[in-house]
Amino acid sequence: MKHATARRIARSALTFAVPLAVAALSLAFSAQATAQTAAEKIARGKYIVSTAACHDCHTPWKMGANGPAPDMTRALSGHPQDFQVPPPPKLEAPWIAAFAATNTAWAGPWGVSFTANLTPDPETGLGKWTKRNFVETIRSGRHMGRGREVLPPMPVLVYNNFTDEDLEAIFAYLQSIPAIRNRVPEPLPPGAAVAQK
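RESULT FIELD:
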């Protein structure tokens, strides 16, 4: 009798233990898969950012031994807040645009635009942005999907060809890089004097 009871208790314990163990293993594998998926998404975003010319404008350039090149110590931090540009030169057709030596300030018929800080700094970059803000900005061509127009040289019409998954990967990567505090000036309308602080 004691042995039968012990066997029933053991079977009951096993009946509960096996599903619990399976559930625990399933959760562990699911968490690992999610972590791998997040890492893969960030890697995909890095690849896209590195091949879609994002560093060409959003990373300030500096003069090096082989000529101008992006300053990767300030990767994707936008127009340097301490680099004041003079008024742009007067351009005559067929020339319609000029850009600063940092490749982060551009002037043309739209006025003067400064490339944005794409790092996750909460005050001066994308730190408070959501994935939705980022995707809507590219889809609409408007800041945060509803504000001012995104100005040249940002190739919004080209980047509109990215899938939502591509844009989500880009955003995931941008949120993973070091935050750089750098307050980029607001764009200037045509004919406005360049007055940066």
